[in-house]
Amino acid sequence: MSLALLIEQFLNGLQLGVMLFLIAAGLTLIFGVMGLINLAHGSLYMVGAFACATVAAATGSFWLGLVASLAAAAAAGALMEVAIIRRLYARDHLDQVLATFALILIFSEGTRWLFGSFPLYLDIPPLLQGAVALPGGGQYPLYRLAIIGVGVIVAIGLYLLIGRTRLGMRIRAGESDREMIAALGIDIRSLYTIVFAFGAALAGLAGALVGALQSVQVGMGEPALILAFVVIVIGGIGSIKGALIGAILVGLVDTMGRFLLPKALALMMPATQAGPVGAALASMLIYIVMALILAFRPSGLFSART
Amino acid sequence: MGARETTVNVLLVLLLPAVALTALFIGEAFYITLATRIAILALAAVGLNIALGLGGLVSFGHAAFFGLGGYVAGVLATHAFNMEPVAFGLPGTTAMPAIWLVAILLCGLVALPIGLVSLRTSGVYFIMITLAFAQMIYYFAISWPAYGGEDGLSLSMRNGFPGLNTAKPFPYFVVVFVLLLAGLLLFHRLRASRFGAALEAARQNPARLAAIGISPFAIRLVAFVLSAMITGLAGALFADLNRFVSPSMLSWHMSGELIVLIILGGKNRLFGPLAGAALYVLFEYALGGLTERWQLFLGLVLLAVVFFARGGLIGLLAGRPRHG
User: Fold this and answer.
1) What residues does B90 pair with on adjacent strands?
2) E strand or H helix at A131
3) Which residue of A85, A203, B99, B175 has the fewest CB atoms within a 10 Å radius of its CB?
4) What is the pLDDT of residues B88-137, one digit of tens each?
5) What is the C-alpha separation between B243 and B238, in angstroms, rounded?
6) In chain A, what are the domain boundaries?
């Protein structure tokens, strides 16, 4: 096992973590402000990927596709909020789970109707093709590094947005006391729509970025959604900081576990057994980490609501 | 329970055997299988209803137990077929009662640690954690190659029940239906018992329950484990019905469907799961025959139930519950 390979896997883990952060940030924001559990968040991720793939195929420009993914996911999110989600804020979690589960069915089948069952492919833009040399020899794809960069920018941007702007102040006020800010004359309904559309746009961006690494297909949002749930449960629901740390943790643990566990087990048992056992254990690892964290901190690492 | 709800319930219970018997006489085995499918899904949802309906514990991970039960049937039968011991020299089996027992015990054993961790939390956390645990088992099943991994495991023939030819659809329906009745009876007795009262109190006001000296945590844990056991039994039956078990039985989609069954029928109603399962399977059959996209319409129906028919099918037919 060379150093370069280790660094490569570490960067892969970081890249997965950053993607999860983009999805989890919206999810946790929506929960923190509106108290809503949104299973259909993964569908918005899928919408972003499909919008990017379609526009990029039509215009030949990945960048236009990226803009389209943000716009399409935000529009789909706003529409979803105004038509359905708005009616769910006062309901219990069971109703929210059911209605957003229904939305997943509608989005998935609707997308299959429009685009068919075959996956779409999205090319990495020419500007970001190629690789960067790693210390210790070896190459790392520039595109994945760029994704990490996007994640860092979004994290800083979110920090500034929430902490330093008027909109961020309203979002924080909405988290702590929604009656009060409504009484202070802030239009809470449109604030909710904005927050929802914003979270949707982040998920759509993640979908477009990942779309160039994997294929774009119906159902791609669901594994991402469940990982994002693990992230926000670990980080503490409602906390952006928790989402960031949880996402990096999940990304690294998952990637490094898949890489290192079979090798570690090979030291203890025959290699033919170590492979499958290691792979099976690695696929469970993040859930084990989650259970351990929750056993000690039942409301996550940085819970906003205690 | 109001008089109208009792009438609806009696009709619901009679519906399945009536369909199965009619199908037997006109020689349409397919409808017997359809009725069996309804009964099994209903039993799985009856299990979940103990946690979700009585205890207010929205478990989004009951597919884990459904799938585990299914894998117990598949794995034991495969070992019996290949004449290999399962573990510790114990042989596999194709006898349903033994399979059911193992499925029930295993699901209880798995539900215990899951419940211990998950029940420390509540609300959204509980939903997501049960989901995550189910995903953990799902990914394990996919990446563990010994029992088919992603492709699943076929049973060469349906497991047997002493004195019955379970390979034929009707005797198997009878077996499943009797178990469904037993599950419903258990739910009914449980709800009427002191334990059931404590469980409903744990849902409505845990602080008061704790104040009179009953630990809500312990009550909920017992309910969660019991609920998992019944859903696991249904899983074993489901594997035998299809003679196939695959990770899709463990998927989060399955967990969602189990919740959907309860809500379609009516939450916290004794016969809600049966009404929901009947509606769901009929819907799947009727719309699935017309369009591949039936899940889109299922989604729309679900939205309509959430917004306009919160009592589900039984709520529509029998009016509001007298207490809830």
Assistant:
1) B87
2) strand A131-133
3) B175
4) 777 778 888 999 999 999 999 999 999 998 898 888 888 888 988 998 89
5) 8
6) 8-116+140-296
CATH match for A8-116+140-296 among 1.10.3470, 3.30.1760, 2.60.40, 1.10.10: 1.10.3470
Q: Which residues of A touch B303 (CB under 8 A)?
A: 84, 99, 102-103, 106
pLDDT score, position B50: 93
User: Is some CB atom of chain B closer than 8 A to the CB atom of A296?
Assistant: no
Among partner residues A91, A222, A283, which is closest to B139 by beta-carbon distance? A283
Q: What percent of chain A has pLDDT over 90?
A: 39
3-state secondary structure A177-198: CHHHHHHCCCCHHHHHHHHHHH
Look at B128 and A233 and tell me if their CB atoms are within 8 Å. Answer: yes
Residue B183 near residue B273 (C-beta atoms within 8 A):
no
**ipTM at complex level:** 0.86
User: How far apart (Å, rounded) are the C-alpha atoms in residues A150 and A164?
Assistant: 20
pLDDT < 50 stretches in chain B:
324
pTM: 0.89
Question: Which of A94, A115, A290 would you mutate first to test chain B, the one with the most B CBs within 10 A?
Answer: A94
